[in-house]
Amino acid sequence: MGPYSQHTTQGIGSAFDLLYEHPILMVIFVVSIIAAGIYFWRKNKSQ
C-alpha cells in the first residue's frame, strides 16, 4: 500500500492506494473540481 494509508480506515486507505498507483486520477479529480468551481463562480457572477 501507499505511504499515506498507514493510519486511515480501510476504505480511505484503498482510495489513497488507488491514487498512489494511478496519479492521473488525482489530476482528473483536481481539474474537475477547478472546472466546477469556475462554472459556479461564473454562473453566480452573471446573475
Question: How do the helices and strands line up, and which of them pair or pack?
Answer:
Elements: H1 10-21, H2 23-46
Helix pairs in contact: 1-2
Can you tell me about this structure?
The protein is an all-alpha fold. The protein contains 2 helices and no strands. The chain is 77% helix and 0% strand. Helix 1 packs across helix 2. The longest helix is centred in the C-terminal third of the chain and has 24 residues, at 23-46. It starts with 9 loop residues before the first helix and ends with a helix. The mean pLDDT is 81.
Instruction: Please report which band the strand proportion falls in: under 5%, 5-15%, 15-25%, 25-35%, 35-45% or over 45%.
Output: under 5%
Count of helix runs: 2
3D shape: elongated
Give the C-alpha Rg.
Answer: 15 Å
The N- and C-terminal alpha carbons lie at a distance of 47 Å
Topology pattern, helix = H, strand = E: HH
Helix-residue proportion: over 70%
Structural class, please?
mainly alpha
Q: Could you tell me the mean pLDDT?
A: 81
Number of strands: 0
